[in-house]
Amino acid sequence: MFKFTLRKSVLALSLIALTSSVWANTFVVKEVVIEGNERIGFESVNTYLPVNIGDMMTRDKERESLRALYRTGFFSDIALYKGEAGQLVIQVVERASIAEVEIKGNKLIKTDDFKQALTSLGISQGKMFNNIEMDRVIIDLKRQYHNQGYYAAAIEIKVEPLPRNRVAINIQVDEGKPASIERISLVGNQAFPDARLKGLLQSSAQVIIGSGDKYARPKLQGDLETLRSFYMDRGFAEFSIDSSQVSLSNDKTKVFISINMTEGPQYTLDQIKFSGQLLLSEQELRALANLESGQVFSRSEIIKAINAIRDKLSERGYAFAEVDPRTDIDADNRRVNLDFMIDPRNRVYVRNIEVEGNTRTRDHVLRREMRQYESAPYSLIAVRQSTSRLNRLGYFSRVNVDTRRVSEDEVDLIIQVEEQATGSFTAGIGYSQLDGVSFNLGISEKNLLGTGNEMNLTLNSSASMQSADLGYTNPYFTDDGVSLGQGIYYSKINAAKLNITDYTLDKLGVRVNLGYPTSELTRLNFGLRAEAQSLNCVTRFEACADHLERYSADNEYLLFTAGWRYDSRNQFYFPTKGQLTSISLQAVVPGTSDMTFYKVFLDESWFTPLSNDFTLKLNASLAYGSGYGDADKLPFFERFYAGGIGSVRGFDPNSLGGYYTDVNRPRGADVRTLTGAEIVFPMPLIEDSSNLRLSLFFDAGYVFDELKDVSVSDFRSATGLAFSWLTPVGPLAFSFSRPVHYEKGDRLQSFQFSLGMPF
For residue 317, what are the CA distances in angstroms to 14, 305, 369, 379? Predict the structure, then answer.
């Protein structure tokens, strides 16, 4: 188990203790002398000593002093005797101090967690070593292994003496094999067969091939509660688990579980009443409870009713309302009368709103998103709206709004946030499947200097594009949330390198836009762009030639933009519930150019949780464009394309649709339709996967010349696995896909990736 020998002999000290324990006579203490101490000073010992200078030393004082000094834990042996001239001499042997603690053989419990548990037991570097405590340490460590199903675990502690009255503690762990569940026996169940009930349990016994689950006591406790909830939700109001026994095999690697239960009869609801101080009408209360006479008694439905009533009262400022469901069981008729006793308590007001965890983002940036105000009545709806708005900012990986009770009618709101990277700086060389080698320099920040303002500067140079863009947006240009954005941009596009047609297009422009919040979840945007462009046909082809015959190679115009947006997502990145709907328009302002056209975009994304980890995402998109006035169609370089990440994965970027016959290049179309479904879930086997997601996806879509040509049978589709990662330099996405519906001649691509594209 453990070994320890003291360097110093205490024989002489023991003799002194025996001979001096009987005082020759009492005496007045004139001086206290400590002998044998090395690390513990006189002041420390004197603090615990119940005898002061001038006190009379007696046998009772001796016993009291010994008890007090032993309780300090500093000493392994203590003796008191009378010295010369009224001296009280205290001879001590100090306990050794712990110089180091070494742990070997542990895999299940991490070393840091192991040392934290030892520290709670008083075993850590610098602490006094207590030989007697070692057995308690072993028992406690074994208990931790037993809780996780390792009943064969063995702990051996060896204590090595070191110079200067120190020791090194070496803990050797033999974890052994985990105990697996050999058999689960259910006793007392009649309404439901064993197979049905065992299917509910997390623990499972041995199967035909292989062994059962590893046994863990917390898992068994969870299974007992699962059984209790299962019965209570199906009318068995008197169900009880009488006992649960766990026995081990001789080698402590097999566990046999027996669960004894009493089902009792099945009950239905009879009368449903509401008592107490009813601030809501009975009609409202019955609608919230959603319970009816004659339905099977269900504990979970009653809990839902309680929460619904409390939430409604919280919306009206009664944050601490109590709803007590009182049941009256009629055993003869197997019916339950239910009376909801309502006590709304005092109406609650918010005293202060405090912000915690924001090291960079300024307080006012968070406070302006709050819909619960200080000195106002507490409202659960307002708190939930505030939490959602903070999450949608994209500044924080976690947002939590808690209430701290101050008095009977006041609370403080505590906004706890965990900030995440909101910007990036990039400079270097990159490569993409579509664009080849690229050089880039970029600064993008959604939360500039913690003000909530957005700024971006990007410079790019690649085979297909040279561009520069400088933009700045103030989301709170006015206190009521009107946003103002402005920017200047330049681009030169070589479309041939983008798998489109052979032309180059130079653009230079300035933009300004305003956003108006129309509700908590909706927003209108209006903007204007002054743009100059220059078109050059690198290879002579029919579409480009027709355009230059009708319009000049150089054009200047004003482009009007407008949009409406609805956003109820619970967070900016990786939402798990909510909806994002947007409608937007781009149109050349009449009279500013002969090349008049417009584009309309409809986009819809819908998120719903399937479980705590899995989210279903559905999306659909429609884009349409045409000419107006003297123009009858879109300029050929403004057409829509499909294929690739952000469109239909599994197909070459921009490759779907028809091709120009004279240059064999994609010609795009005036209509683009896209749809898809994804099941999104965190990265498995990674403890913190807040910035990582995997998804199983299905993409479909195509481009058409006119709206009347749209046909689902022409859609191309693919399915596969996608990976998304919020890197320090921007979102990274890549996918592995397999086409489901495609035609001969379609250009397929199984692996695709993108850096900097929003998810």
Answer: 72, 19, 20, 5
For 364, the 3-state DSSP assignment is helix
CA-to-CA separations, 91 to 37, 167, 618, in angstroms, rounded: 8, 22, 80
**Which DSSP string do the residues of 15-67 spell out, in sequence order?**
HHHHHHSS-SS-EE--EEEEES-SSS-HHHHHHH-S--TTPEE-HHHHHHHHH
Cβ neighbour number for residue 92 with a 10 Å cutoff: 21
Of 724, 720, 715, 729, the residue nearest 751 (C-alpha) = 720
> pLDDT for 464-477, tens place per residue?
667 888 999 998 99
**Cβ atoms 550, 632 nearer than 8 A:** no
For residues 709 and 706, give the distance between their C-alpha atoms in angstroms, rounded to a whole number: 5
| Spatial distance between the Cα atoms of 68 and 45, rounded to a whole number of angstroms | 10
**The tokens of 273 are what?**
């009443």
| C-beta atoms surrounding 686 within 10 Å | 9
Residue 454 tokens, joined: 């957005």
Q: 653: how many CB neighbours lie within 10 A of its CB?
A: 26
Contact 724, 695 (CB under 8 A): yes
Which one-letter DSSP state was computed for residue 554?
A: E
Q: Which residue has the tokens 């829509």?
A: 640
Mapped onto helix, strand or coil, the DSSP state of residue 542 is: helix
List, in order, residues 6 or more apart from 588 with CB less than 8 Å away. Answer: 557, 558, 559, 560, 595, 596, 597, 598
DSSP 379-411: -HHHHHHHHHHHHHTSSEEEEEEEEEEEETTEE
Mean predicted confidence (pLDDT) in 544-549: 84
Neighbours of 505 (CB within 10 A): 17
Tokens of 678: 């994804």
Q: How many whole angstroms separate alpha carbon 469 and alpha carbon 454?
A: 13
Say how many C-beta atoms besides its own lie within 10 A of residue 292's C-beta: 9
pLDDT tens for 404-413 read: 888 888 889 9
pLDDT digits (tens, 9 = 90+) for 518-541: 988 899 999 999 999 998 887 777
CA dist 670 and 707 (Å) reads: 8
**pLDDT of the residue at 630:** 85
Number of other CB atoms surrounding residue 672 within 10 Å: 24
Q: Is the dihedral of CA 494, 672, 529, 481 positive or negative?
A: negative
Domains and CATH numbers, the chain: 11-94 (3.10.20.310), 97-174 (3.10.20.310), 180-262 (3.10.20.310), 268-343 (3.10.20.310), 349-419 (3.10.20.310), 423-755 (2.40.160.50)
* 264: CB partners within 8 A, 6+ apart: 236, 237, 238, 239, 240
Cβ 268 vs Cβ 333: under 8 Å: no
- Distance CA(288)–CA(305), nearest Å, equals 6
Give 554: exposed, middle or buried? Use CB within 10 Å, 0-12, 13-18, 19+: exposed
Cα of first residue to Cα of last residue in the chain, in angstroms, is 58
Distance set, CA 614 to CA 54, 140, 677, 680 (Å): 76, 38, 13, 6
